[in-house]
Every structure is written in C-alpha cells, then in structure tokens.
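can u do me a favor
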C-alpha cells in the first residue's frame, strides 16, 4: 500500500489564519465547494491570493445553476425549475461561508471552504441542500429549541482504483471483521491512514470500526449542532473519496454495493432548550415532547423517503434480519426498529436508522428535524414501542420498498409541502423521478448475465 505522504498542519482556520498562510506561501489554492443535491462537493479551485483579495471580504463567484439541477452523473436533465435549457442554464452565486474554512492535511491539499448558494439578487437558493437544513434549524430556533446531531456512516472499500476495482470488486477484507481489533495488514494500514487524515482535518471523529461485511468500515462522529454535523459529513466523504485512491483502493457509499451488503447512515438526534435536554423524562423514560417527536418521525418519514433513500439502489438495503429497518416502528435499544431510543439520562436520544449511506446529510437531517418539530407541535402520540424483532411483526406498517412507491407518497404529501415548501418537494421529487426513469430504461450487468445464460 502506498503511503499518503508527509502530513501538513490541517483543520479549521480563521480568515486571518488564511491570510497568514497565503502571505507565507504555505497555501496556494482555495477550493470553494458547494454541496450538491447528492451530497457531493463540487466547485472551483481558486488561486489563493486572488481568493483572499476578491472573496474573503464576503463576495462570491458565479457558477452554473445546473450544479443543483442534475442527476448523479452531472447530466443536464429536464424537469427542474431552477435550471433548464429553456432558461438558458444561467448562474447562481456561490458565497463562501468563512466559518467553514479548513486546511486539508496533505501536501498541496490547500484550503477548503463551503459555500451557500444565492440568486443574483441575494436571495438564498431555496432548494440548495444546506439551505433546506438551515430553514429547519431556524424553525426550531423560533421555538426556543436547538438540535444536536451525530452521524455514523458505513462505506465499503475495494481493492484497485476506478475501473480496475469495478472490474473485479474484491473487497479490502474477505471476512466478517465486525468490532475486530486485529486486522489484516492492508485493512489496518488503510484505517490508520484514514484516521490520521480525518483527525488532521479537524473533523470530530469519535471512532472507526470494521463491520460485518467484507471491506465494510463505519465512522462515527461526535455530537454537534445540526449544520456543523452535515458540513463535516460532506467533508468526511470528500476526504474518503480523495484519500482512498492513494492507497490503491476505491471506496463507495452506495447503500447496497453488492447483494446482501448494506451501508447505512444513522442519524443520532437530541433536542435542547438552552442546556436542558428535551427528550428525557425525570423518571428515566421519554418525556411527552420526546414521545411526540417519535410519533412525528413514524408518521411523516415514510412519506419523505426520497430524502433518506434517494436512489433505486437505496431500497435494496432494506431487508429482513439485516439491521436495516423494513417496518414503521420504534423501540427501546432495538436495532431492528426504524427509530431506536438509546442512551441514558441527559444523553437519551433518538437514532433514526432508515437513511442509507448515499443520503445527502443536509436533506436527511432536515427531514428528521422537520418531523420531530411537527410531531411536537401537533402533540402526536406514537404507537406502542415494539418488542423483539420488528421484521416478523406483520401488524406493523411496511416502509416503502422501492423508489417509485416512495416518490408517489412524497410528491403527493401536503405535510411535506408545508414543512419544506412546495418548491423543495417538487425539486427533489424531480430528482427521484429521474432516478426511476434511469433504472427503468438502462440495461444492467445482471440482466446481461441472466439473459446470456438463458440463451
């Protein structure tokens, strides 16, 4: 395995710190990044002195609006109001959020800064993922409530880079290494290198572990405010995608990268009024507000699945006896439930186990916070907690089993149009519809294999 090389100081920096790094010649580029619809970072590489001179004072730069109106292959596709052939694919403005300045801890890594998307008149682009989450954080704030969020995500690593990896799909490890502390050399070296870079970048890494599926790794991050948690998560995925090829490997955040393998993104959330947690009761159980939040999640999230499971592949993760939920249920420390109540005392919180690793963290967290807020506002009451395996309890409603079913519920949902805005629902329903059309028309390798063997 090739080494990543000599590390350089990394982590969050201030605008003044960036100026010093540029003046001393330690940094020569700044990557102005936008989180796109699919949770990926896209943007421009700026010459650092120019960035300091032109953009550090709060200005922005133009970029084609199609960055927030494409499919996963960056194709300009019809159906989006924000950008189209009819509108001429005009620009939006990327405004650097200087609170997200971060030096990347490898030679030539430069500085990364996330941006917010604005129209030419300064209005925020409502469908931009970061703006969608910002609106939900603001709505909670108006109620005197803040959210703390921690994300844990699984991904799978294969040997080889790019097409080489796709041609043979040999995972980095070949057996179940769940919770293992002794690893094959290649796995040990990969995990060690990635840990070093993530910590060097100043991300709040709590733990990493190998998982049950071959080549599968889980990363868990400490609690933070909701926007910071999503910001750090897209940076984490960017780092994984950047660093992994340097180790002659390929990483994927597909929800189901192979038959029988599922990569999830579990959202741990708690709500707070100043320094007091909202969800625990004095007796040790759920408070009334906590129960109402659970009810909101159960009643509303099944109609928002395109924000949690955005592709046809996402739904192949939802299988019985897989640790991924298949039914609408909650339970105490129950990993078969869609919503798991876990933790103790002030640390009692909710774990939402529906999202796949392919979910956009801004959108998934926004959906969770909106559902909690609506549940509390309407004083919804949850069903009884599920005991034992939810997979075998046929009286529990099933989650949508595929994207077309999920899309139908989402685009027709009055509740979600009210919570997110009609424009946001229409935008992401369009994205889901495009994914459905691709899946319905593209010929797959599985079809070729089965068809050729049939002949």
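np, heres the sequence
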């Amino acid at each position: 395995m090739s080494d990543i090389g000599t590390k350089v100081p990394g982590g969050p920096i201030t605008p003044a710190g960036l100026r010093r790094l540029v003046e001393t010649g330690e940094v020569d580029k700044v990557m102005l990044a936008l989180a796109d619809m699919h949770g990926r970072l896209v943007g421009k590489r700026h010459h650092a002195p120019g960035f300091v001179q032109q953009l550090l004072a709060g200005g922005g730069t133009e970029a084609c609006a199609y960055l927030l109106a494409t499919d996963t292959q960056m194709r300009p596709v019809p159906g989006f109001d924000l950008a189209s052939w009819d509108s001429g694919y005009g620009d939006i403005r990327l405004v650097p959020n200087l609170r997200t300045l971060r030096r990347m801890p490898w030679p030539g890594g430069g500085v990364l800064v996330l941006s917010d998307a604005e129209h030419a008149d300064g209005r925020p682009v409502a469908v931009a993922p970061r703006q969608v989450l910002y609106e939900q954080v603001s709505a909670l704030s108006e109620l005197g409530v803040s959210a703390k969020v921690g994300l844990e995500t699984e991904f799978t690593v294969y040997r080889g880079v790019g097409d080489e990896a796709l041609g043979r799909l040999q995972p980095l490890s070949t057996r179940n290494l769940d919770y293992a502390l002794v690893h094959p050399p290649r796995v040990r070296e990969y995990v060690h290198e990635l840990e070093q870079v993530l910590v060097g970048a100043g991300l709040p890494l709590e733990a990493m572990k190998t998982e049950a599926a071959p080549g599968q790794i889980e990363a868990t991050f400490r609690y933070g405010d909701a926007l910071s948690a999503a910001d750090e998560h897209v940076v984490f995925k960017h780092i994984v995608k950047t660093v992994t090829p340097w180790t002659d490997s390929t990483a994927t955040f597909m929800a189901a990268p192979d038959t029988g393998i599922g990569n999830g993104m579990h959202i741990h959330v708690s709500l707070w009024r100043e320094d007091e947690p909202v969800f625990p009761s004095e007796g040790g159980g759920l408070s009334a507000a906590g129960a109402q939040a659970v009810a909101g999640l159960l009643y509303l999230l099944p109609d928002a699945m395109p924000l949690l499971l955005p592709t046809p592949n996402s739904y192949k993760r939802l299988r019985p006896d897989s640790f991924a939920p298949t039914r609408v249920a909650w339970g105490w420390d129950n990993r078969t439930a869609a919503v798991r109540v876990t933790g103790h005392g002030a640390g009692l919180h909710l774990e939402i186990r529906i999202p796949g690793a392919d979910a956009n963290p801004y959108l998934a967290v926004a959906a969770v916070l909106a559902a909690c807020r609506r549940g509390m506002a309407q004083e919804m009451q949850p069903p009884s907690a599920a005991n034992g395996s939810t997979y075998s309890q046929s009286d529990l409603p099933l989650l949508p089993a595929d994207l077309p079913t999920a899309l139908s519920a989402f685009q027709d949902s009055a509740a979600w149009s009210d919570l997110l805005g009609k424009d946001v629902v229409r935008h992401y329903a369009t994205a889901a519809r495009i994914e459905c059309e691709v899946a319905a028309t593209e010929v797959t390798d599985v079809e070729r294999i089965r068809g050729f063997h049939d002949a």
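The mean pLDDT is 94. hope that helps!!
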